[in-house]
Amino acid sequence: MGVDMETFYDESRIAIAPMGFCFPGLDAKGGDRPPRRECAPLWRERLISQLPHVKLTLLVGTYAQRWHLGARAQRNLTETVRAWREYGPQFIPLPHPSWRNNAWSRANPWFMSEIIPMLQRRIKNLLT
């Protein structure tokens, strides 16, 4: 995002809202299991309605992308992220920033060269 820690954790400027407020547990490989299906339908709309001035939502990972984009999401994460222009200015789809996605980043160098600089410029403009 290109912001310092103070800005990132300033709740008057940036909100972090997971798809599930309940920890789903770990899978056999040590990663988090997918969000529980009942969580987002129970609370997501109520939370979003309390944030009327949101100008940009980063859709981090497939679950967030499918929830917010619905049928507009492409058939997989890579295609959805590559089609980021179709979802603006409200949404920018992103892969989950995890060590497990390092191979994805290497296989998709356009993400770091095209999307990250655009995202950092957009956030800087929104925060100034």
Rg estimate, integer Å: 15 Å
Q: Which structural class fits the helix and strand makeup? A: mainly alpha
CATH architecture of the domain at 1-12 and 52-128: 3-Layer(aba) Sandwich
Unreliable runs, pLDDT <50, ≥5 residues? none
Describe the strand arrangement of the main beta sheet, using strand numbers: 1-2
Helix fraction, binned, reads 40-55%
Explain what you see.
The protein has 128 residues and is mainly alpha-helical. It has a domain at 1-12 and 52-128: Uracil-DNA glycosylase-like domain (Uracil-DNA Glycosylase, subunit E, 3-Layer(aba) Sandwich). The protein is built from 6 helices and 2 strands, in the order H-H-E-H-H-E-H-H. Strands 1-2 form a two-stranded parallel sheet. The longest helix is centred in the last third of the chain and has 19 residues, at 109-127. The model has no long low-confidence stretch (mean pLDDT 92).
What's the helix and strand layout?
Layout: H1 5-8, H2 39-49, E1 57-60, H3 62-69, H4 77-82, E2 91-94, H5 102-107, H6 109-127
Parallel strand pairs: 1-2
Concise structural overview:
The chain is mostly helical and 128 residues long.
Provide the descriptors you would attach to this structure in a database record.
128 residues; 2 strands; mainly alpha
